[in-house]
Amino acid sequence: MKQFFLGIYNLLLGMKVTLEQIVKKPITLQYPSEKRQPYPAFRGNLRLHRDKCTSCMICVNYCPNNCIYIKYHVGEDKKRKLESYTVDMGLCMYCGICVDVCPFSANYWDQSYENSVYDRKQLIERKDI
Asked: Which residue in 2, 42, 53, 81 has its CB near the most CB atoms, within 10 A?
């Protein structure tokens, strides 16, 4: 008899949760026309402040997946000049180490989240412009 009342109690408890959800306003967004604002700590795409980058290669050396490629040349003033900065976002695991170790805050995460592509080659992003 105790099992019977326990079953009825659990059934009523489940129906209470269901009824509470039925009367609430839906939270569905109509995606293409309505876009959600991500949280501030969201890691979207890796971006580069080109003027802050000194081609020190720290981000390349610390990247566990080797998805960052930097080309540079040494100028007349014996300083490195950035030629190209390429990131393969298909290999990137969004760990954030490259952003954390950059002493000049040249790497940063943006808030974009629309990264769907049909070809993995489109995930290679050149940041030399």
From this structure: 53
Using an 8 Å Cβ cutoff, are 100 and 47 in contact? Answer: no
Interval 14-72: pLDDT, tens: 999 899 988 888 888 888 888 888 998 898 889 999 999 999 999 999 999 999 999 99
Instruction: Provide the CA 75 distance to its chain's centre, in angstroms.
Output: 34
> Is residue 54 within 8 Å of 77, Cβ to Cβ?
no
Q: Closest Cα partner for 93 from 117, 73, 126, 68?
A: 68
Q: What is the CATH topology of the domain spanning 46-112+122-126?
A: Alpha-Beta Plaits (3.30.70)
User: Which pTM was predicted?
Assistant: 0.71
Give the start-to-end residue ranges of the domains of the chain: 46-112+122-126
Q: For residues 30 and 85, what is the distance between their CA atoms, to the nearest angstrom?
A: 36
Three-state DSSP class for 82?
strand
Q: For residue 74, list its beta bridge partners.
A: 80
